[in-house]
Amino acid sequence: MAWIIGIDEAGYGPNLGPFVMTAVALRVPDDGRDTDLWQRLAAAVRRDTDPDDGRLVIADSKVVYSTARGLAPLEAGVLAASLPLWIDGLLLKRYVEDFYPSSHPGLCCESWYSGDTPLPVATEAADGVQARTRFTDACRSAGVSCGLVRGVVVCAEQFNALTEAAGSKGAVLRHGLAHLVRDCWHLDGDEPLTFFVDKHGGRNTYAAMLQDAVPEGIVLAHREGLASSVYSVAGLKREVRWTFQPRADAEHFPVALASMVSKYVRELLMGEFNQYWLGQVPGLKPTAGYPGDSRRFYRAISPALKRLGIAESAVWRRK
């Protein structure tokens, strides 16, 4: 058996709201490291949103989610594939505590966060149970298991501190990657770890970043270029390999799922962010936090920030 781990993020570009990065680790048969898991799990999942044949859509979150399509397809795939079992009365805070444990204490210090959003938001619980059962059955038949979902949430204050200290917001990506590599480092046994990571913008070199993240061994660069950057670690009992590539979420099933989980969690957190500020500024139109509209929203809440004694750096992400 071997581990394949996908890592992707959501919310790197906005000025408002949190940045979310997630790792999804799947345990697969030895021959599953290089196989198409969409094919192996075809009884339960598909790549395309149309036509709807009842199977879960697991793909790049930009394919699965849009404001026109709504949250339901994204939520259905995320909850069915990430929850070990369906939990009645599940709240956002429980989901975050379980899968983003290192970030939850800091998140609880945010004025806008309550974690009281009930899940599911856009799908029926009964449908979720059925989808979860179908996904689990397909994984069992293929010898695949979801061994870990782990992530980090970085809110404005920390985002700004990391960016200022390094002189670049790329430090936020390095921070998230280091956390997730360490979280996955001690997955059961000496079975190989193969990481697939969506490339960070136009960056081609990751050796120094990875060396800071690994607790032991020496990171070796095998290839660094536009198409992909590939690394391994020497001096370990187990094989460890990373591949960074553009559009990894279109090539690797666990990266697609990590992309979806990150987007789902960010959308739920933005729901609470908007709900809080709409309570402070009645009639305010919600925001997704991206440049352009974020300035409109920030200007509208500025008087409330002063009234509440909340610093600009606690809300507005500088780049």
Explain what the structure shows.
With 319 residues, the chain is of the alpha/beta class. It has one domain: Ribonuclease H-like superfamily/Ribonuclease H (Nucleotidyltransferase, domain 5). The chain is built from 12 helices and 9 strands. The strands form 2 sheets. A 7-stranded mixed β-sheet has the order 5-2-1-6-9-8-7. It has a two-stranded parallel sheet with strand order 3-4. α7 crosses α8. The N and C termini lie far apart (42 Å). The mean pLDDT is 93.
Q: What's the total count of β strands? A: 9
Biggest sheet: strands, sense, closure? Answer: 7 strands, mixed
Q: Gap between N and C termini, in Å? A: 42 Å
- Helix tally equals 12
- CATH A-level architecture: 2-Layer Sandwich
Q: Quick one: CATH superfamily?
A: Ribonuclease H-like superfamily/Ribonuclease H
Total number of domains: 1
Cross-sheet strand order for the largest sheet: 5-2-1-6-9-8-7
Percent of sequence in beta strands: 15-25%
CATH class: Alpha Beta
Mean pLDDT score, rounded?
A: 93
Please give the radius of gyration in angstroms. 20 Å
Derived structural class: alpha/beta
Quick structural overview:
The protein has 319 residues and is of the alpha/beta class.
Salient structural properties:
319 residues, alpha/beta, Nucleotidyltransferase, domain 5, two-stranded parallel ribbon
